[in-house]
Amino acid sequence: MASEQSDFLESLPRVLRDAAQSFEFDKGAAIFRQGDPVWAMFVVLRGQVRLCRFGRDGEEIVLRCARRGDLFGEVALDSACYQGNAIVFEPTHLQAYPVQLFRDLLDHDAVFARQWRMLLSWQLRKARARIERLALKRAAERVRHYLLTEGSGPAGELELAGSLKEFARELGLAHETLYRTLREMESRSEIERVGKLLRLGRKTQCL
Amino acid sequence: MASEQSDFLESLPRVLRDAAQSFEFDKGAAIFRQGDPVWAMFVVLRGQVRLCRFGRDGEEIVLRCARRGDLFGEVALDSACYQGNAIVFEPTHLQAYPVQLFRDLLDHDAVFARQWRMLLSWQLRKARARIERLALKRAAERVRHYLLTEGSGPAGELELAGSLKEFARELGLAHETLYRTLREMESRSEIERVGKLLRLGRKTQCL
DNA sequence: CGTCGCATTGATATCGCTCAAATCCGGTGG
DNA sequence: CCACCGGATTTGAGCGATATCAATGCGACG
Hints:
The structure is a homodimer.
Chain A: H1 3-10, H2 14-19, E1 21-25, E2 30-32, E3 40-54, E4 60-66, E5 71-72, E6 85-98, H3 99-108, H4 110-134, H5 139-150, E7 158-159, H6 164-171, H7 175-187, E8 191-194, E9 197-200
Antiparallel strand pairs in A: 1-6, 2-6, 3-4, 3-5, 3-6, 7-9, 8-9
Chain B binds a DNA duplex through helix 7.
């Protein structure tokens, strides 16, 4: 997916690769739940996993959506228990890396430790960008912000990874609102849409 | 402030403490701006610094508010440039730690590196909790979530650090809305207010 | 072919934002 | 000591953007 993350995963030490266990999960399965003891970090090879919490009324609050190439469970590295739920959203193949091995490596392998650090910084930046986005009040502003921060190139080009419904959740909007907003933005030439490709129009302004 | 952070700051290696420079800033000063080359990490000794970005219309989007005991600039450790603006909100005394020294230490001091890692994880968890909060639609839900995640004890007790106006910004609400919401929650016995102290009422439910 | 989930559109309700104004409070200077 | 000022706090009124509910079409898949 993103460069920092794939760089990290491609250069995993051999000892970690060798210790990885492979798993298959069906839709709806819980890889871990809030409060479960931490035993592994995971990398998605195929499928989709939602890191989420559940509100009082049982509504799902998606904190993150891990797809092919994504690592998850990383915030729990130095914790005893997982802080959220990992729910399989479509049939998923993933690899589990024992957490103890991770901890040992981090204490003894300086290069690996450095890469891990950069990964965390990168995720922190992404999380803060999302906070910044959710603080915007208008739906169109959120879309524009997303394209500018997550899109590639000066025109903020972006190939949507999933459905518009998922995109709406990422933006903190009702999916109906996103449909309407995209339509209006397109009619105002603020964006262009070609299938799953989104791009900013001529008005590519700062921030 | 929070335990993980103060733990970290109290156990800073001597070589870092010795290299720290002290600064005083007046309200409105920019400690660094988006795009400035990274030269230091900062710790607030007194005052308040807002980590923010500016929207198209010049409106301030507060990403974080650093007060006494808080570290900031940390996400830029492995970057060439700062990612946002650090604006002094009230007269501030702070200490600057040269970034190169930080980087050297992280590569050679395993204990320090471990503490740094835990600090980043902790901040990542906090950032994601805030995302979760901003994804809630109702103002009262955001307040409740804040008390449950940031407050202490099972009753979610919380001493507000700043003004209600600042609290409103943290929650992504207009301050008027927050005033009204708090009043209604109090009248419904969902919370109790004693000056700057907030506490959940009897209905202390999960999440 | 039937079902399921996504995409889309319409109608309506609602919550939070905006604008406006009054009060309070702490600090500051005369 | 008092007048004044800026900022926080509060409350009111009205509006508007988004959520919600509802219905339909469409494509994938078994």
